[in-house]
Design brief:
The protein has helices at about 1-10, 15-30, 55-70, 70-80, 95-105, 125-135, 135-150, 160-170, 185-195, 230-235, 235-240; strands at about 175-180, 200, 210-215, 220-225, 245. The chain is an alpha+beta fold. The protein has two domains: about 15-165; about 175-245, Sun protein, domain 3 (Alpha-Beta Plaits), CATH 3.30.70.1170. α2 crosses α3 and α4 crosses α7 (about 135-150). The two termini are about 20 Å apart. The relative contact order is 0.12. This is NSUN7 methyltransferase. Keywords: Methyltransferase, Transferase.
């Protein structure tokens, strides 16, 4: 299961993740003045989320939605410049799904998503995916033109300076992890982490590489260097819900 999750994250997500991310984004997207609206997201109603497959699916659905929110202006510009939007076969109530899936497609360098035979597919996701993938050359060209216009080596450089500074501060913060003591003891966590090559240090200032330290006030909270997020989430401890990223 752990290896499967890692593979899906690298090559895209389950259809239900895209649907839920689109529903979340529909409720938080930036509304523009009526005279400036070029991309239409349908009415303001937000339908209930699909049941999450697991904690991982819930986390990545929200992460994907808020990543799209950061880049909403850029994604809309790519859609319009490429002439991929508007499209008469895609109604306004699927625009959020279109935007979410375009963000993920460019994040995968416009590579095709791998779908296992066992995965339950959703018609709307399959429709949007086929449309975007068939237009990938035009979309990639529009993204390149946008980067040239902004003199940016990556889309992160296109973000407003205030948001980029927030991103830099957030990326420097240590990762906070809660131990689920209903499933595992502290000593077993320490033993498992040691087997995985982690070393326990005394303070936050000592965090470097494969290290962690305990919170001074909460005995069931650990801190890790921010650079280890991907490695941590691929541990069995997280897949088995014995550790949770806060």
């Amino acid at each position: 299961e752990k290896r499967t999750m890692a593979l899906i994250e690298k090559n895209g997500f389950h259809d239900s993740v895209y649907i839920n991310a689109a529903k979340i984004f529909q409720g938080i997207h930036t509304e523009k003045c009526k005279d400036r609206i070029l991309v239409r997201y349908g009415d303001d109603s937000v339908s209930p989320l699909l049941p999450f497959r697991d904690e991982y699916s819930q986390r990545v659905s929200y992460e994907l939605a808020f990543s799209v929110l950061k880049y909403q202006e850029l994604i809309e510009e790519i859609l319009l410049d490429s002439c991929v939007y508007p499209c008469h076969s895609i109604p306004d109530d699927l625009t959020s799904l279109l935007v979410v899936m375009l963000y993920d497609l460019q994040d995968r360098k416009f590579q095709a998503r791998e779908i296992s035979d066992e995965e339950e597919t959703i018609a709307e996701v399959q429709k949007i995916e086929r449309y975007l993938y068939s237009s990938r050359t035009k979309l990639a060209a529009a993204l390149a033109r946008c980067r040239i216009k902004h003199d940016a080596v990556s889309i992160e450089c296109i973000l407003p300076e205030a948001i980029r500074k927030q991103e830099q501060r957030a990326s420097a913060l240590p990762l906070c992890v809660w131990i689920n003591t209903f499933k595992i003891s502290l000593q077993d966590v320490f033993r498992d982490l040691k087997k995985k090559g982690f070393t326990r240090v005394e303070t936050l200032s000592d965090l470097n590489g494969y290290t962690y330290c305990m919170d001074q006030h909460c005995h069931d909270v650990l801190f890790f260097p921010s650079s280890l997020k991907e490695q941590l989430l691929n541990l069995d401890l997280f897949a088995d819900c014995k550790l949770f990223l806060q």
